[in-house]
Amino acid sequence: MVQYIQTRLLLTIPVLLGVSFLTFSILHLIPGDPARILLGDMGGGAAAGDTSDAAYENLREELGLNDPFLVQYVNYVKKAATGDFGRSFQTNRPVRDSIMEVLPYTLQLTVVGLGFAIIFGGILGIVAALNRNTWIDSLTMVFSLFGLAMPSFWLGFILIQIFALRWTLLPSTGTEGIKTLILPALTLGLVASGVVARLVRSTMLEVLRQEYVTTARSKGLSERIVILRHALRNALIPVVTIVGLQFGGLLSGAVIIETVFARRGLGRLAAEAVLRRDFPMVQGTILVAAIGYVIVNLLVDLSYAWLDPRIKYR
Amino acid sequence: MEQSAAVGAPAAQLPIVAARSRRREFVRALMRNKGALAGLIILVLLILAAIFAPVITTYDPIQISPRDRTLPPSRDHWMGTDAFGRDIYTRVVYGARVSLPVGLIAVSIAATAGAILGLIAGYYGRLADGIIMRIIDIMLAFPNIMLALVIVAILGPSIRNVMIAVGIGEIPRYTRLIRGQVLSARELLYVEAARVVGVPTRKILFRHILPNVVGPVIVLGTLSVGAAILAAAGLSFLGLGAQPPRAEWGAMLADGRQFLRSHWWVATMPGLAIALTVLSINMFGDGLRDILDPRIRT
Predict the structure, then answer these.
(1) What are the tens digits of pLDDT across the range B221-261?
(2) Yes or no, beta carbons of A151 and B271 under 8 Å apart
(3) CA distance A292 to A132
(4) Which is the most buried residue in A305, B52, B91, B268, by most CB within 10 A?
(5) Across-strand partners of A87?
(6) Distance between CA A93 and CA A85 in Å, rounded?
(7) What is the pTM of this model?
(8) Chain B: nearest CA to A30, how far in angstroms?
(9) Using 50, 70 and 90 to split pLDDT, how confident is the model at A44?
């Protein structure tokens, strides 16, 4: 087990190197000179004119922009490995500090949102499977179809209209406090619970046909124990996979939802960095998101062994 | 796939009749599947609306009309008007002209690239497989929306670039699916036979293997057109796709933000349009999956 984890962790290194290399090279393809952007932002007006040629050259040298591309990349990786992602072109603060500041907000949003999706979607899926081909089943599946078709940004608007504007129960925007978390997390969770419900339903149906479920029933176990202890646990494996993938894609959902609710977070930080050509910030946020993806997928794989003792890792 | 195996035997003797009856069987199965049929009907109506947009609307989707600002739904403007006095119904109909092709083209980009990569990885194995699948792993770890953001940052915000970005983001799924299919198709007897008699590899790949793995790709393709439309609308919502004054659903929704309290219809109508379109595509796709390949699940 320990060895398996070690191997897996080692295997993540090439993936992270690949991601960082891809980001690094793409960003170097973007037209626009970071030193000019930086001077334009700091000096204001015509700072990039002839008079500041010396300053411009100094800055290029300081940023390492005069080095060959590969040298720049290797230097970046060396620093990134120690947690130093450079300084933001925009604010001149260390990228790591900015990311660490907003990361908890995005994690809260994702964990609460997906937690809601798992519980709500899971219950819906089980209920639908147990009432197969009845109106309950149909209703649940219609709900999940809507969940899949609903643009999260529109759902966010609807929730704002109802809970923030009409009933004024919850704030529509902001980041501080639990109350500001509810609507964004609900938006994320409702959309994701559609997928979860469908998946739980179909795997439950498959599991319920298995012999060990029949055995458990014929032993005289109560239906609740059969479902919760025997069937559900086995039905969870595909669910964990999908939820892991969704969690891995947390940044994608976060960009839109954080924009809708004007929340601080990794997604908005990343989106704004791209629009402002803040290269170090873009690289940092993408790398952190990729690390999150890799870790979550490792946890997902490890959870298989816990869910299904037949699966062993060596 | 099981189905084609079942009709495989008579097909060898009576290929034309078998093909025809298989098509008839497909149509009959589709008719029985109420959800799929409903999805298909709505989808066809949406496509017709997109094609005949100028015929079924009376206003101009772009021309502003300050006197008619944010009018509520009425007989003249049955979805109301937006902040520039434009008829929302007209803009929603014209929006179908953007979203439907965007979804279709993005998926075509992904499926084509995924098919080529998947065929190579699956058929040649070894080094090619190793390299391609590692690249796919990297793409998967790369947040989709960041990929799109970066592509848009390079190429500039436009609906065409969003289409490319969404398409590239979907490549990994197709590559994986097709590679898996090819891995099993490669071992089939007729492929081996073709190899033995000296059919060139390219011909084996495209003439013999590809047609046999295409069923699941069609299913995934249909289902992901909806997802692609959502993704593209999301990017336009963020201001990275369609630029004003173009009638695009995601951008229209973003315009409605400031009117959530006072003029609900501005954001609601394009939202409904997106949801209805994606819903109908998914219902049709679900039905296709049930008919063509009951084994795949989402």
Answers:
(1) 888 899 999 999 999 998 888 888 899 999 999 998 888 88
(2) yes
(3) 37
(4) B91
(5) A94
(6) 11
(7) 0.85
(8) 5
(9) very low
Please count the residues of chain B.
298
Residue A94 CA to chain centroid, in angstroms?
A: 23
Closest CB from A27, A31, A161 relative to B260: A161
Q: Which long-range contacts (CB under 8 A, 24 or more apart) does A125-131 make?
A: A125/A196, A125/A197, A125/A198, A125/A199, A125/A200, A125/A201, A125/A204, A126/A200, A126/A201, A126/A204, A126/A227, A126/A232, A128/A197, A128/A201, A129/A200, A129/A201, A129/A202, A129/A204, A129/A205, A129/A208, A130/A204, A130/A227
Q: What's the gap in Å between the CA of B84 and the closest CA on chain A?
A: 21
CA A311 to chain centroid, in Å, comes to 27
Q: Give the ipTM.
A: 0.83
The model's pLDDT over A9-23, given as tens digits with 9 standing for 90+, comes to: 888 888 889 888 888
Closest-CA distance of chain B to residue A47, Å = 24
Query: Given the structure tokens 């922009």, which residue do they identify?
Result: A65
C-alpha A298/C-alpha B146 separation (Å) is 22
Across A148-215, the runs of DSSP E, i.e. the strands, are none
- pLDDT tens column, B70-87: 889 998 898 999 989 899
Q: How far are the Cα atoms of A104, B62, B132, B134 from residue A174, in angstroms, in the given order?
A: 14, 34, 43, 40
By Cβ distance, the residue of B144, B230, B271 closest to A249 is: B144
- pLDDT in the model for residue B17: 63
Residue A33 C-alpha from the chain's centroid? 30
